[in-house]
Amino acid sequence: MKTSSNISPKLKQFITNFYKASDSPPPATAADPYLDYFTSSSPLLMGLKKVTGHEEITGLRKAMWEKVTNRHHVVNNVAEIEPNQILLNGYVDYTLINGKAVTTDWAGFMKLVEEGDSYKMEYYQVYLDPSAAAKALSE
Description:
- It comes from Candida maltosa (strain Xu316) (Yeast).
- Helix content is 25%, strand content 45%.
- It is of the alpha/beta class.
């Protein structure tokens, strides 16, 4: 992960841990650790979908994992454009339920707040084109 010089080790660790949580499916019965990275009322925009708050984020996560058996994010670049406002980009490798593998480029924008000794996102938007995965699922 290439970072701008003003990215602290604490922030770099937050980003690394967040994408590890993102790459794990939501648990069926327990609370989803992915939610720990968001404030309780945070909006999450994923492509054209917008959800707000932990309950809706949970629903979106479950829907996203219905067509995927595995995924792995790679963060290429991280830049802090304002204090606690982060731009990121990278790619994500998916294994779909039909066994096909797809790689998609993405970019993201995070607005962070510090809570205790870590961060939470009060806003997160992901820019990506889902057409490659949709095409692979239809084949």
